[in-house]
Design a protein that fits this description.
Low-confidence stretches: 216-229
Strand content: 5-15%
Number of strands: 5
Helix content: 55-70%
Shape: elongated
Mean pLDDT: 87
Distance between the termini: 50 Å
Structural class: alpha+beta
Length: 244
């Protein structure tokens, strides 16, 4: 038995809400030193050999944080915080910084470009959440929600690719410089799971829009009502025929 438009719209709304939740968790990491966002980061590096740096450092979208008891300890927040170790915004020195980071804007630009794309993805994602309520009732609502979810999927995929590329490269450079570095598992799991959720939301919204009135059962009820009155009319005609 095919799912109704309401059921498909609800499933799409579920995936939409899940994607937004994961995106907000990553987006707010580094803003406050509170659970659970104080456990989310892109890259952790052993920075004990870098002058003026803490023993361990973690990058988020808002800050370069130290680590206390396995959690982020961040200072003032700075939106669109770049990943650029030798710059004044990060460590402010070239001493014991991997040579690959010196004299290039690649990491600075790649990390910063991810921020506006994430803002755009969140914008279209929130719109899709609101229109998802209409998707449970109308076909046009399903297709509008699918289109908005597709836009959110597109920009979220760009963000996940940019963040993955820049921080995987950064991890490799630090490890090659004998400075232990590791990716933040939660941040990357949330980023890519959000991509999967947006893809599933697009599919379910489109399926909801493709459901016809016949599939929802309205035409069946209409046919049954029509069959009832047609039967009464046929009985009346037969009675006329047998009457003298």
């Amino acid at each position: 038995m095919p799912l109704s438009r309401a059921a498909l719209g609800f499933v799409g709304l579920f995936f939409t809400a899940g994607a937004l939740l994961l995106m907000w968790l990553v987006f707010l990491a580094g803003v406050k030193n509170s659970n659970p966002v104080d456990q989310i980061y892109f890259l952790q590096v052993d920075s004990s050999s870098i002058p003026g740096a803490p023993a361990q450092s973690r990058w988020t979208w808002w800050n370069l944080c130290s680590v206390v008891n396995g959690r982020n300890m961040c200072g003032d927040s700075h939106p669109d915080f770049p990943f650029d170790p030798p710059s004044q915004r990060n460590f402010g020195t070239e001493e014991n910084i991997p040579q690959a980071f010196i004299g290039t804007n690649h990491y600075f630009l790649t990390s910063r470009f991810s921020w506006p794309f994430e803002i755009i993805a969140l914008f279209f994602g929130v719109l899709s959440l609101f229109t998802g309520l209409i998707a449970m009732c109308t076909r046009i609502g399903s297709y509008i929600s699918a289109f908005l979810a597709w836009l959110a999927l597109t920009f979220q995929t760009i963000v996940a690719c940019l963040i993955t590329a820049v921080f995987v490269q950064g991890r490799n450079h630090f490890n090659s410089n004998n400075q232990d570095a590791s990716l933040g598992v939660k941040a990357f799991a949330f980023l890519w799971t959000a991509v999967a959720c947006w893809l599933l939301a697009c599919i379910t919204y489109c399926l909801g829009g493709s459901v016809s009135r016949k599939d929802t059962g309205y035409s069946g009820r209409k046919q049954r009502r029509r069959g009832f009155f047609s039967a009464r009319q046929a009985d009346a005609e037969r009675n006329k025929e047998v009457a003298p």
